[in-house]
Write a structure and sequence with these properties.
This is LysR family glycine cleavage system transcriptional activator. Keywords: DNA-binding, Transcription, Transcription regulation. The structure is a single chain. By secondary structure, the protein is an alpha/beta fold. The chain folds into 2 domains: about 90 residues, Arc Repressor Mutant, subunit A; about 200 residues, D-Maltodextrin-Binding Protein, domain 2, CATH 3.40.190.290. The chain has 11 helices and 8 strands. Strands 4-3-5-8-6-7 form a 6-stranded mixed sheet. It has a two-stranded antiparallel sheet with strand order 1-2.
Length: about 300
Amino acid sequence: MKMSRQYPLNALRVFESAARHMSFTKAGDELGLTQTAVSYQIKLLEDMLGEQLFLRRPRQVSLTEAGIRLAPKITEAFSIISDALAGMKDASQGTLTIHTTATFAARWLARYLGTFQLENPGIAVRLETSQEIIDFSKTAADIAIRSGTGVWPGLKAHFLMKSQFTPMLSPTLAATVGGVEKPEDLLKLRLIDPDDPWWRLWFAAAGLPDVDLSGRPASRFGAQAFEAAAAVAGHGVAILMPDFYSDDVALGRIIQPFDLLAYDGTDYWLAYRKNRRNAPKVRAFRDFMRKTMPTFQD
């Protein structure tokens, strides 16, 4: 049997307050009840227990022996409940759950999360990654960093960066065909995930709208970061966002043979529920992103 059906919790709360104050009037003031309502709740509890809990005297009440035995245990029980709920609230306020793509997490966010936590020592960060666009009503996330148009019902979105892409490959792989000087040279090499629509968009922007990519070995790595790792290893040409790979270019691990960048109409956005915009942890992360990412827009 459920406790809420076996024991009248409202009556127990009224009893605890009346026993603590030794006054039905003060208990009513604390709980927002009339003295009559307090008397009714205590009588309800006494009838259920089959024990008198208070001795009623004119303008004064006192606990019976049964009431004296019960009162400290009920006070302790409500204290435990209060502490549990406070702990839940503190944990919720102190942990920031961020949902994002594996690529953004690995290629940008991981570099800066340490700084955020140093600046906000009271906020723990939980990072979750997937390629899916989450539903905030079904996922325990405070913030999402996602690719899209920035228009999502019920969400506030801040522009982070443009999703522009271009072919990138290792210099060693480029050397196997005598270098990559023109877009057609890419067709001499294995393309990582040739079914990715970014390839057709880029080739069209490069003046090759009718390029035939059919029949090429298909491969799906599930995230751009993994495709980049394969490209660095010389396993093919990846279509990537060069903003994520400036360090690899500087180290000579990967090259961007063409300045041409293509665009599919989507960008990276910081999003959260509108009704959570003033939550301290959400506000702290939003302010941090505004300060850290030069392209951030309100």
